Amino acid sequence: MIENQKIRPAQVIGPLGEPLTIESLPPATTTRWVVRRKAEVVAAVNGGLLSIDEVCERYQLTLEEFASWQRAVDRSGMQGLRVTRIQHYRDLYERQQKY
């Protein structure tokens, strides 16, 4: 019996509808995080291409930082990842939760 066998897809669908593979993800040395790159990393985790631990280690992210990306995508899509719009979308989400 094989325990803890990890079956991973070879590719997942990226945020723009293109196939994403491990090789097509942003390089591990990425320091400038634009919306598209953040969304690709979130899609890779959501699709099972990488685990959250692997992403945090590979990109030197904190769990909180990655979790904030996931929440932003879940709430507002790719637009929620825009640094200049984070507060706007956060306020909008909080207003929606009240009503």
Structure write-up:
It is a single chain. The radius of gyration is 15 Å and the shape is globular. 47% of the residues lie in helices and 4% in strands. A two-stranded antiparallel sheet has the order 1-2. With 99 residues, the protein is mainly alpha-helical.
Topology, element by element:
Blueprint: E1 12-13, E2 19-20, H1 35-46, H2 52-59, H3 63-76, H4 86-98
Antiparallel strand pairs: 1-2
Number of strands: 2
Low-confidence stretches: none
Largest sheet: 2 strands, antiparallel
Structural class: mainly alpha
Q: Helicity level, as a percent range?
A: 40-55%
What separation lies between the terminal Cα atoms? 51 Å
Choose one word for the global shape.
Answer: globular
| Strand portion | under 5%
Number of helices: 4
Q: Summed up, what is this model?
A:
The protein is built from 4 helices and 2 strands, in the order ββαααα.
What keywords describe this structure?
two-stranded antiparallel ribbon, mainly alpha, 99 residues, 2 strands, single chain
